[in-house]
Each structure stands twice: as C-alpha cells, then as structure tokens.
Amino acid sequence: MNARENNQRRGVLKALVIAAGLMLMGPAWSSAYPAKPIRFIVSGAPGGGTDSVTRIVANGIGEAKQWQMVVENMPGAGGNIGMRQVATAAQDGYTIGMGESSNLVINPFLYTKLPFDIEKDLAPVGLVGKVPLVLVVGSGSPYTSVQALMEAAKQKTLFFASAGSGSVGHLTGELWKRQAGFNATHVPYKSAAPAMADVAGGQVDYFFASVSSAMPLLQAGRVRPLAVTAGTRLELLPDVPTFDELGQKEMHAEVIYGVVAPRGTPDDVIEALNTGLNDFLVTPAARRALANLGADATAMGGSVVQFDQLLKAEREKWSVVVKASGARVD
C-alpha cells in the first residue's frame, strides 16, 4: 500500500469515527432535554383565556415531568408580539409559546403586514384544546331562541358585539350572517368583558362569546345562551342546543389553543414536548381544569402532524371569512 492509499484509508476511518460519535451524541443530548428552564411565552395578558390555559399546561407538565417552565406574558397586537418572540428565539426547545386562533390562524389574512411568517417561522408542537363559542343575548332580550333572533334580523338591523375586529367572535358573526341570509352591524370592543357588559345591558343585541368569557354572566343570569358552535352539547351548558341541532351545520367555530416552537427546533425536541403535553392532557386533572374553561373534552391533544393539519384547515376556512368581511388591520 503506497502513502497516498494509506492517507485515504486514514481519512475514511476518521470520517467513520466522527459519524459514529455524532450518532451517539444526538440521542444522549435529546435524552437530557430539558437541561434548563423552558421559557413559555403567552400571547395574551395575565388573567385572560390564553394565560389561564398556559398556566394550567405549564404547571401540569412541570409537576408531571419535573420540568421547570417559566411563563412570560407578552400581549399586544392581536398576539403578534408574543408570537414574534417565539418565532425569532433560538431553535433549541427552550422557548415555546401558547398561541390561539387569532395569532395562529387569522392574523395573516387580517393584518396588512406581520413581523414574521406564521408558517415558515413557527413549528407546531401540539393542540391543547378547542373552546367553542356561545351565542348570547341579554337576559331581558325579547329573543329567546336562535330562530326568533334570525327572524328579527331579517326584519330590521340588529347589532352584534365582538372582542375586536378579526376576532373569532367577530368572524363567526360574519359567517352566521352569510349562512342565515341577513344583515347586522358589527360593533367591535377592545376585549370580551365590555362586549359582554353591553350585551347584558341591552346596548347591543347579541355576541358570539367564548364559553370561558361568557360563564360569569351566564351564571349570574345576566345573559341568555341560545346555541353553541360545538359539534356536541357542552358539559358546562347541557341544556343549550348546538347549531347542528338547529339545522345550521356550517356553524362550527372554536378558539383553538396550541403550543408552538421556533421553526428549526430539532424534531426529537418537538416530539419530547408533544409527549409531555399529551401525557398531561390525558389526566383527569387536566381535562377537568380545561373543561372548566369551556374546552371540548373530546378534542384535546394529539400528534404534531394532526395539529399541523388542523391549523392548515382552520386557515383555509377563516381566510375566506376574513376576505368576505372586509376586515383589515394596518
């Protein structure tokens, strides 16, 4: 064997040794994950629905897996501020975020320009849950059924509230107008709380509210539920019919909550996070806590691929509604 062949042989052996070492290092690194606290960004304000869901998940996974999760609120701009922080964070699994329908589905079609690409910059980790909406009117309203409300809307202009232009409640109201064949005037509010107050006070006629935001006034008897946008009746509102039961099968709408990470985060880390999430979501404590916020107990958790497919289907659905509504945010 000449010197050249000997050098080539040494080079091949060296490459094989390095490759074997890298193969061994990969699983060893991922098995040690997480080796430090995980920053869990909330795209909503403290005390809101997204914040409540995040803290349930962070505390549950933290206790079950002995992982340290540090919740950090970054509200504003429809959740875009928090999601931008996730999108631009290091791709190492130590920054994740809790998103919901507005900032994971609707905002790309609503905002003229976003500071990040919702599909290219964010990687799905897993679905947490779906919170349906409930159509409510004031307790003193003359409308005691969906049919009565629809008939009135075809005779005169009614006013419906939302928690803001482009919110799920706003777009569900626009969807209902299209499906039922009537017109109504949209009245956007800064959040769900003042919208609920004005529905209760009779200043506006109706509101598609998330179940979690509606429950305090429902329990106080200040608003009346007419129907829910879920596929089946809810445990929290067992006497309230679904739109399906009323023959309006296109009226399915939920606020989707899910965990995302920066795109480029290693697949094994994404899977570890997904496993930790699912291990928590199957526990009775998790289902009870999320059900108390109005989440559908039959639609919690699942694989990374299933969550990705759900987000794509939701974007396809709501992009049409946003366009038809004419809603835009500069």
Mean pLDDT: 89
**How many helices?**
11
- What is the global morphology? globular
Per DSSP, what share of the residues sits in E-state strands of 2 or more residues? 15-25%
Helix content: 40-55%
Q: Whole-number radius of gyration? A: 24 Å
Strand element count: 9
Characterize the main sheet: 9 strands, mixed
CATH fold group of the largest domain: D-Maltodextrin-Binding Protein, domain 2
Low-confidence parts, pLDDT < 50 over ≥5 residues?
Answer: 12-29
Please give the domain count. Answer: 2
Termini separation comes to 72 Å
How would you explain this protein's 3D organization?
With 330 residues, the protein is α/β, with parallel strands linked by helices. Helices cover 45% and strands 19% of the residues. The protein is built from eleven helices and nine strands. Helix 4 crosses helix 11 and helix 6 packs across helix 11 (304-325). It starts with a helix and ends in a 5-residue tail after the last helix.
What does this entry show, briefly?
The protein has 330 residues and is of the alpha/beta class.
Notable traits:
single chain, 330 residues, alpha/beta, D-Maltodextrin-Binding Protein, domain 2, 2 domains, nine-stranded mixed beta sheet, 9 strands, 45% helix
SSE arrangement:
Elements: H1 3-31, E1 38-42, H2 49-65, E2 69-73, H3 80-87, E3 95-100, H4 101-110, E4 122-138, H5 146-153, E5 158-162, H6 168-180, E6 184-188, H7 192-201, E7 206-210, H8 211-219, E8 223-228, E9 254-262, H9 267-281, H10 284-291, H11 304-325
Parallel strand pairs: 1-2, 1-3, 5-6, 5-7
Antiparallel strand pairs: 3-9, 4-7, 4-8, 4-9
